[in-house]
């Protein structure tokens, strides 16, 4: 079940820059290390519904129901565009600024969780990723799916924390310049908008 092949596969998937990574980096730069940790935690928690869906077979329903898939997908697209707008606003919740804007850690985590929850491809991803690494014993299939999913989540959290700490460490050097701050905000906004466009083109 738990093999080096699975760990390597999961690691490659986790380190690849995606929406959660971009969000964690943006939070680390804009709000510092503690906020980045909460962002990483939220993105990791957002995996749970998709893992449950894959384990219970609901991911197959999402894959076959065009209406359900499109509904979740475009909710995700709208949310990513909202995050892009928040990066551009001078008083936006995600705007990177030299002064740290107070925000509860749970709000930061909730935003990260929603990013993953509203991505329907994650459920289908787990449905495709995990079964090849199962032992083949039907009686233990569910427990094995949960265990592999838990390992994947732990790796996700660990890697995202490293991304966040790196961004927070670079914060003081980068945000000393107003020009760099504006460039960062516009760049992250463009990335979120591009991710929204990519999600909009996804098919079940």
> How many DSSP helices?
10
Largest sheet: none
Fraction of helical residues: over 70%
User: How big a fraction of the residues is strand?
Assistant: under 5%
Summarize this structure as a short list of keywords or feature phrases.
mainly alpha, 204 residues, globular
Walkthrough of the structure:
It contains ten helices and no strands. Helix 1 runs parallel beside helix 9 and helix 3 (33-45) packs antiparallel against helix 9 (141-174). The chain is globular. The protein has 204 residues and is mainly alpha-helical. The chain has one domain. The model has no long low-confidence stretch (mean pLDDT 83).
Q: Topology, please?
A:
Blueprint: H1 4-15, H2 19-31, H3 33-45, H4 48-56, H5 58-64, H6 66-88, H7 105-117, H8 121-129, H9 141-174, H10 178-201
Helix pairs in contact: 1-9, 2-3, 2-7, 2-9, 3-7, 3-9, 4-8, 4-9, 5-8, 6-10
